[in-house]
Amino acid sequence: MRSRGIGDRRAGFTLIELLVVLAIAATIGGLVGPNLWQSYQRANERLLVINYAQDVTTVRRGLMQTKRSIFIAEDELTMRKLSAEFPAIPTGWAIVANTELYFLPTGVTTGGQIAFESPTGRRWKLRLGVLDGKADIDLQ
Questions:
Q1: What angle do CA 95, 97, 99 make, to 5 degrees?
Q2: Both ends of the chain: CA-CA distance in Å?
Q3: Given the DSSP bridges, would you call strands 112-117 and 70-72 parallel, antiparallel or unpaired?
Q4: What is the pLDDT of residues 18-70, one digit of tens each?
């Protein structure tokens, strides 16, 4: 056996050093990984709700061009899952509640909200502004 002196150089890491680093990396990955995955899912869900809000805005514009109006009663979307005038909700999602919504031919809306539940169980709320129908999205 050679003894290590002052002038000796080490060619690499010992097995213990590598195992300690791998254990630390695995611990950090185990703590951070699930949070990153949940953030990714939440961002994807938010994108689906934003796309639905854009579809509702497109319906509103179409009603303005054709000079038509629609009225959606409270919980009508919940009971029927979608109105004939409204876009289809994303696959696996459910509308759990909605308030009365009026879309007039002038583009004016009475405002209201639609509450969604995603396949992961998160609840999202799409609020439509009074008059202009501006969409606002919240995670409940």
A1: 125
A2: 67
A3: unpaired
A4: 999 999 999 998 888 888 888 999 999 999 999 988 988 888 888 888 888 88
For residue 9, what pLDDT is reported?
66
HEC per residue, 91-121: CCCEEEEECCEEECCCCCECCEEEEEECCCC
Nearest CA among 78, 90, 125, 62 for reference residue 70: 62
Please tell me the distance from the alpha carbon of residue 118 to that of residue 131, in angstroms, as a whole number: 28
Q: Where are the beta strands (DSSP E) in the chain?
A: 70-72, 94-98, 101-103, 112-117, 123-128, 135-139
pLDDT of residue 6: 61
CATH number of 15-139: 3.55.40
Burial pattern 73-105, b for ≥16 Cβ within 10 A else e, equals: eeebbeeeeebebbeebbeebebbebbebebbe
Judged on CB neighbours under 10 Å (0-12, 13-18, 19+), 118 is buried
Which pTM was predicted?
Answer: 0.73
